[in-house]
Amino acid sequence: MEIERKFLISELPENLEQYPCRLIEQGYLNTDPVVRVRRDDSACYLTYKGKGLLAREEYNLPLTEEAYRHLIRKADGRIITKRRYMLPCGPYTIELDVFLGELAPLVIAEVEFPDLKAAEDFIPPDWFGQDVTMDPAYHNSVLSRA
Asked: Where would I find the CYTH domain in this sequence (predicted)?
């Protein structure tokens, strides 16, 4: 089960380059239900995501590079590329996605939680913008078609 909140970011935090960063490329084979292929630096995955906004099922299966290259060509919609920065935030980690290509200059912060109470109690840092957790328009599967 994935439990996460999403926030729009209008201004990047200072010293972003000091945090770990990965390059992510992903495409969607299906959006209802969500079936995604992703290359995260050199690791490749096929992911199934269930319905939901704040909480939903998620299953990841490893892929070979060859299988990833084969499946990404079958993606429906745009291929999403983004840089993901990992920033500490108390007991949590902020996954700061800086979108590249057609979706630039979109920046979204995601924070995953161990349970619903932790997600509801979370107080975002001052530099976070609008909470878009309950807005499906900010799911990557929707962004791939927008």
From this structure: 1-146
